[in-house]
C-alpha cells in the first residue's frame, strides 16, 4: 500500500515569522525525524506551502486575518530550513485547504504540520472526504495550533470525522 506523508505549511512565517509560535518551533525536530523516516522507507512526501500574493490584505482572508504572511517569494513563504527533501512534491495552496487532493493517489496518508486548527484540519477533512476508504491519520506530536486549546479542539474534530489521531 502506498504511504504518503503530507507536511502542511512548515514555513518560516508559521514557525519563526509573522505568525510563529513557541509550539511551532518546538515541533520542528520531530517533524524533521518523521520526514526522514518516510524518506528512508521510500515513501512519498508532499509539502504544502501557504501561498499569498502582494495583495493579501485585500483578499477575504486578509480582511479577517490582517497579518501579511507567506507572501510568494519572501523568506516567510519558504519551507523551514532542513525540512525539504530532494524529490518531494510541493503544492502551493492559496488558502486553508487544497481542493485538488483527488488529483493525487492517496491510500495511506499521514498529516503533520501547521496550524492544526486551520490548515491541518482543513486538509485532513478534504482528504478523508475525497478518499473515504483511505487510512488517514494525524500525528498530534508533529502539529501545533494557533493556541494549545485550538490545537486540541481540532484534534477532537478530526477524531469525530474518523481520522486517526496519534
Key attributes of the depicted protein:
single chain, 166 residues, alpha/beta, Rossmann fold, 6 strands, globular
Fold and architecture overview:
This protein is an alpha/beta fold and 166 residues long. The chain has a single domain, classed as Rossmann fold, CATH 3.40.50. The protein is 34% helix and 22% strand. The chain is built from five helices and six strands. It has helices at 12-15, 22-40, 60-64, 116-130, 148-160; strands at 3-8, 44-50, 89-93, 108-114, 135-144, 164-165. Helix 4 packs parallel to helix 5 (148-160). The two termini are 20 Å apart.
Helix content: 25-40%
What proportion of the residues form beta strands (DSSP E)? 15-25%
Tally of separate domains = 1
Rounded to an integer in angstroms, the radius of gyration calculated over CA atoms is 15 Å
| Cα shape | globular
Strand order of the largest sheet: 3-2-1-4-5-6
Major sheet: 6 strands, parallel
Tell me the CATH superfamily.
Isochorismatase-like
- Low-confidence residue ranges: none
Kindly report how far apart the N and C termini lie: 20 Å
Structural class: alpha/beta
Corresponding CATH architecture: 3-Layer(aba) Sandwich
Summarize the structure.
This protein has 166 residues and is α/β, with parallel strands linked by helices.
Layout of secondary structure:
Layout lengths: L2 E6 L3 H4 L6 H19 L3 E7 L9 H5 L24 E5 L14 E7 L1 H15 L4 E10 L3 H13 L3 E2 L1
Parallel strand pairs: 1-2, 1-4, 2-3, 4-5, 5-6
Helix pairs in contact: 4-5
Amino acid at each position: 500500500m502506498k504511504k504518503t506523508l503530507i507536511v502542511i505549511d512548515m514555513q518560516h512565517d508559521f514557525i519563526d515569522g509573522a505568525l510563529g509560535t513557541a509550539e511551532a518551533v518546538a515541533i520542528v525536530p520531530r517533524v524533521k525525524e518523521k520526514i526522514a523516516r518516510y524518506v528512508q522507507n521510500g515513501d512519498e512526501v508532499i509539502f504544502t506551502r501557504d501561498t499569498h500574493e502582494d495583495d493579501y490584505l485585500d483578499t477575504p482572508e486578509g480582511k479577517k486575518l490582517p497579518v501579511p504572511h507567506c507572501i510568494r517569494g519572501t523568506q516567510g513563504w519558504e519551507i523551514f530550513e532542513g525540512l525539504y527533501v530532494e524529490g518531494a512534491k510541493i503544492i502551493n495552496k492559496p488558502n486553508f485547504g487544497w481542493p485538488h487532493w483527488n488529483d493525487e493517489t492517496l491510500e495511506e496518508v499521514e498529516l503533520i504540520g501547521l496550524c492544526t486548527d486551520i490548515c491541518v484540519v482543513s486538509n485532513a477533512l478534504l482528504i478523508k472526504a475525497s478518499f473515504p476508504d483511505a487510512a488517514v491519520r494525524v500525528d498530534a506530536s508533529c502539529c501545533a495550533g494557533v493556541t494549545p486549546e485550538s490545537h486540541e479542539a481540532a484534534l477532537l474534530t478530526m477524531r469525530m470525522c474518523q481520522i486517526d489521531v496519534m
